[in-house]
Write a structure and sequence with these properties.
The protein is mostly helical. It contains five helices and no strands.
């Protein structure tokens, strides 16, 4: 049996956390190793954060000093992240 699950990441949460950390898009892009335009596209929704690689999401979380569940919107994925962390 194969189980698949799609995580839903919230671009608005990404921007909110970045601003709370007092970072510009350019600073976050540099700290996370992302192209500044790519980060801008994620925040504006013109590039779907849901299609980002896990590595990209983790780079953003490390750079923002936040947990993945801070930018995840899927209740199922949040539960799995909690289970994984236990």
């Amino acid at each position: 049996m194969e189980i698949t699950m799609k995580a839903t990441f919230r671009a608005d949460k990404l921007k909110e956390i970045r601003k709370k950390r007092g970072m510009t898009q350019a600073e976050l892009a540099q700290k996370s190793g992302l192209n500044p335009r790519t980060l801008q596209d994620y925040e504006q929704g013109s590039k779907d954060l849901n299609n980002a690689r896990l590595e990209t999401i983790l780079r953003l979380c490390v750079a923002l000093n936040c947990k993945m569940i801070d930018i995840v919107n899927s209740p199922d994925m949040i539960e799995l992240v909690h289970q994984y962390g236990e």
